[in-house]
Amino acid sequence: MVIEYPLMSQLEILRILREAKLEPLETVPVDSPLLSPVGLFHVKELGGYIMVRAANMKLTVEKATGMIVNVSGGGCPDVPYLAQELVGKTLKDAPQPLDLGHTLCGYALQLAYEEAMRLCSQ
Amino acid sequence: MLAVVGTVPEPSLPVLEGKATMEGDAIVIDGKRLRVGRGTTALLAAAIQVAILLDQPLPHAYLAGDIGTGEGSLKLYAYLTEKLGQGNFRTIAFHYILPDVDWHNRVLLALDAMEPRPLLIADAGWMYVAKMSGQAPSYDLFTPDAGELAFLADEKAPHPFYTRGFLLKEENRVPELIERAYRNEDASRCMLVKGTRDFVATKQGIFATINGPTVEAMEAIGGTGDTLSGMAAALVASGRDLLDAAQIAARANRVAGVLTRATPATQIHEIIGNLPRALEQVLGLSR
User: Fold this and answer.
1) Which residue from A1, A72, B257, B265 has the fewest beta carbons nearer than 10 Å?
2) Residue A122: what pLDDT?
3) Exposed (0-12), middle (13-18) or buried (19+): which is B263, by Cβ within 10 Å?
């Protein structure tokens, strides 16, 4: 089965499908089916902090505590909301962007969050 | 006068229009208080600070609550098509919004009917939708960061999330990506690319590079791009030339970071308090 949905709302659509226990085999933009989500991360050490960038989203974490100290970048309306909900909490205690976000910016932030988790658990 | 358009993360907020003032760490519009955080409120706060410092009219805001569902964004687009043309604005800064090509184009038609046509500045979601709709050259200033510039330079990407890897690989390719964005007609008349080095560019090439003062932590702080766009917009609205305004804003934002002694954990409201002093330094003003 193929489901067509507004690209911007990808994160919300994937969440709805996941709740219905439907995992898509593949998700692609209709106009450019060969494009794939960002897979490159830029990681910058800033003293006692680590900043992870995925596409247009940046997540900064205090290395010693795992505290999310800043969320920057992005342009969709869930970004300021996600920043409000994540900043000041540790990676472990913060809600995942996947659970609160709706858009592709939220999705990019989720990838940055997962990469930060991976780096901080090393 | 400057108008500022964008969403704020308050789901129950209907479309709100009016003169924006500041009281403490809140923006006040038509009696409604909005705490300043990263996003459109940071842009507005910076614009208000510049307006007060330069003795200019306070910005006029068009806001709506949206946490990503798009409901507030759609209401705002619809409101703008009806009301924006009634204003008398020299400059309009567009900011956070859920990209919707059809609604964007309707708003652009309303803008095209304005006489004289205001200068148009776009950042965040509005910059994305301007590029997605193929209307980037209709805008006078975009303020992308490195990741967003790669998106502008990628003629195939429908959103920064789908920017192709070869364009995202290295951060020191900014001049090449600027050139590529202009070649594809996915750039505004002038661009202010924010990053470790800020670049002011036009179709003719890089006009200026701003290297200092350097505060590495600024890139991590959510809202520093918003204050940069807000200052540039307010300076343009005050009559400054676009290229001049972009450079002044870039320098003042950096100086504000120094004055704040910013760390990666600094929050944007701490920097906003230092913007007037920073701008005074850059413009050589004395109180």
Assistant:
1) A1
2) 78
3) buried
Residue of B nearest to A12 (CA): B69
The C-alpha of B232 sits at a distance from chain A's nearest C-alpha, in angstroms, of: 18
Which pLDDT band, with edges at 50, 70 and 90, does B61 fall under? very high
From the list A56, A72, A77, which residue is nearest B98 (CB)? A77
Spell out which residues of chain B touch residue A29, defining contact as CB-CB under 8 Å: 158, 162
User: Domain residue spans in chain A?
Assistant: 40-122
**0.90 exceeded by pTM:** yes
Name which of A10, A38, A45, A99 to mutate to probe chain B: the one with the most chain B Cβ atoms within 10 A of its Cβ.
Answer: A38
SS (H, E, C) chain B: CEEEEEEECCCCCCCEEEEEEEECCEEEECCEEEECCCCHHHHHHHHHHHHHHCCCCCCEEEEEECCCCCHHHHHHHHHHHHHHHHCCCCEEEECCCCCCHHHHHHHHHHHHCCCCCCEEEECHHHHHHHHHCCCHHHCCEECCCHHHHHHHHCCCCCCHHHCCHHHHCCHHHHHHHHHHHHHCCCCCCEEEECCCCEEEEECCEEEEEECCCCCHHHHHCCCHHHHHHHHHHHHHHCCCCHHHHHHHHHHHHHHHHHHHCCCCCCCHHHHHCCHHHHHHHHHCCCC
Of B165, B223, B264, the CB nearest to A40: B165
What is the pLDDT averaged over residues B151-180? 87
Question: Per-residue pLDDT tens for B100-111?
Answer: 999 999 999 999
ipTM: 0.92
* Distance in Å, alpha carbon of B273 to nearest chain A alpha carbon: 18
Fold held by B2-283: UDP-N-acetylmuramoyl-L-alanine:D-glutamate ligase (3.40.1190)
Q: Do A72 and B68 touch (CB under 8 A)?
A: no
Indicate yes or no: CB of B171 within 8 angstroms of CB of A56.
no
pLDDT, averaged in runs of 10, over chain A (122 residues):
87 89 88 76 93 93 96 95 97 95 94 94 82
Whether B154 has its CB under 8 Å from any CB of chain A: the answer is: no
